[in-house]
Amino acid sequence: MAHAVLICSGARVPAARLLDHPLLDRLSIITEHGHTARYPDGVAVETVGSVHDVDEVLAAAWRIAGRHPLDGVLAPYEVGLPAAGYVRTVLGLPGPDFTTATLFTNKHAMKQRLAAAGLPLMPFAGAHSDAQVRARAVEFGWPVVVKPAYGGGSKDVAVVADAAELDAWLAGGGSPRPRNPTAVVERRADILVEYHCDGVVHDGAVRSVVTSRYLEPVLGRIGQGDPYGSYQLPSDHPEHRAVAELHAAAVAALGLRSGVTHLEVFGTPDGLRVSEVACRPGGGAIPAAIHLRSGVDLVDACVRTSLGLPPFPDGTPAPARTDARYVGHCGLALRPGTISELSTEAELAALPGVLDVVLHQRVGDRIAGHIYSASAAGFVHVGADTEEEVRERLATVRAAYRIRTRPDGTGPDGTDPESTRPEGPPESEAPDSTVPDRTAPDATDPRPPTPDHAAPAARARPVAEAVAS
Question: How many CB atoms lie within 10 A of CB 214?
Answer without folding.
Answer: 18
